[in-house]
Amino acid sequence: MAKSTVTSFSFPTRVVFGSGAVSQLPELLAEYGAKRVLLVTDQGLVHAGLVERVLKLVSGSSEVTCFDRVEPNPTESCLEEAVTLLRRESCDLVVGLGGGSVLDTAKAACMRLNHPGPLNQYEIQVEGYRRVTGEVPANIAIPTTAGTGSEVGRSAVITLETDNRKAVLLSPKILPTVALCDPELTLSLPAGLTASTGMDALTHNLEAYLSTEFHPICDAIALGGIRLVGRHLVDAVKGGGIEARSGMMLASSMGAIAFQKDLGVAHALAHPLSTLSGVPHGLANAIVLPHAMAFNKPVSADRLRDVACALGCGVDGLNELDGAELAIQKVEGLLEQTDLPNRLSAVGVEEDLLPELAAQAIADPNHRTNPRPCTCEDMVRLYRAAL
Question: How far apart are CA 156 and CA 257, in angstroms?
C-alpha cells in the first residue's frame, strides 16, 4: 500500500447496460414515480431522430417537457435556461439524453434548482459539495457517446461566462439516479466523434491510474478500462459493430468511475483549449495526452509500463522506462490509427495564446493530483511541445 491514510470507497451508481436498454426507460420512470419529466438534449440528437424515439417511448406514461438547446461546452446561460424550464414546469425528474455536455447540463440543472447564488461557490477547489445541502431531483442519464462517462460521475463541467473558464461542480447528490447505457445509441456516431470521445475515455482511465490519490479499486477499474480501449477503439472508429461499441461504452463509464481518484495535467491543459480556442474536449485531451505522459514518465514509469501492458503491448523483458515509452508510442499510434490530429496547430491554436492558456491550466484543479507537480512554466512547455 502506498499510503496508510484511511479512505472511504463508494460505488453507488445504478447502471442498466446493454443493447436495447433504452426501452426500459418507461419502467424506470414509473419506478421513480415521475409525473412530469424534463428531457435535456441537443439539436444534433433532435435531427438524428433519437429525441423523437425517446419521446415515443415515454408517451402516455409521463408528461415530458423538452429542453433541446444544450451547446457544446455548456455555459451558465445554457444551464440557467434549463433550470428555468425545470422550475416553471414543476418537473420531478430529469432525463439527460446525449453526450457529456448534455449529461453535465442535466446534472447541474438538478443541483441548481434549489441551490442559488454564484455558480463558482459550488466548484471542487472550494469544496463546493459542502454547500449542496438541498433537495436534488432524480436524474436518469442516457449517454449517446462513449467518452465522458458523465452518466456515472459526481461532477458537472460548466463554462463560467464571467471569466470564460470551465468550472468543475462536484457533489455526490448530482450523481445520476440511473445510468441507462445502451450501446446501440452510439452505432451511428461519426468516426471522428467516436475517435475523440474514445480518447477522452482513455484519458480518464489513464490519468485516474496515475493520480496520486489512493484508491486501489479504482486502479483496477482504470486498467480494465484501458484494456477495453486498446481492444475496441480502432474497431469502433472503423465501423465495428455492437461488440466494439459496447466495449467503448463500458470503458467510458469505467473511466468516470475510476476518476473518483481525480485526474491530472492532461485535463488541466485540455479545459482551457475548449474555452479559449474552441477545441472539443475529447480532441483536446487526445492531442495533449502523449505529452502529459512524457512529462510524467520520470516519476510514473512503473504505472505507465502497466498502461502499455493494458493497451496490449509486449512489455516482457522491458524495464520501467522502456515500458513507459512504449505506452506513449502506443497512444501516439492510436491518434494515427483513428485519423485524429496530433498537433494543436492543426486545430487552430496559435503560439501567442500559450501564456493565457497556461494561466488557466495552472488554475485548473485537475493537476493537483498529477504525479509530477506542475508550474505555469511547465504548462507553457507542454502546450509548446504539443503545438
Answer: 14
C-alpha distances out from residue 327 to 206, 237, 294, 318, 330, Å: 11, 20, 10, 12, 5
DSSP 159: E
Nearest-Å Rg of the Cα atoms of the chain is 20
What is the reported pTM? 0.92
User: Do 128 and 178 touch, CB atoms closer than 8 A?
Assistant: no
Pairwise CA distance, residues 222 & 259, whole Å: 8
Stretches where the chain sits below pLDDT 70 are: 1-12
How many CB atoms lie under 10 A from the CB of residue 257?
Answer: 23
258: left (phi over 0), alpha (psi -120 to 50) or beta: alpha
All residues at 6 or more sequence positions from 286 whose CB lies less than 8 Å from its CB, including other chains: 195, 196, 199, 200, 203, 335, 340
Do strands 165-170 and 155-160 pair parallel, antiparallel, or not at all (unpaired)? antiparallel
- The angle that helices 216-237 and 242-258 make with each other, rounded to 10 degrees, is 150
- Phi and psi for 192 in degrees, rounded to 5? -60, -40
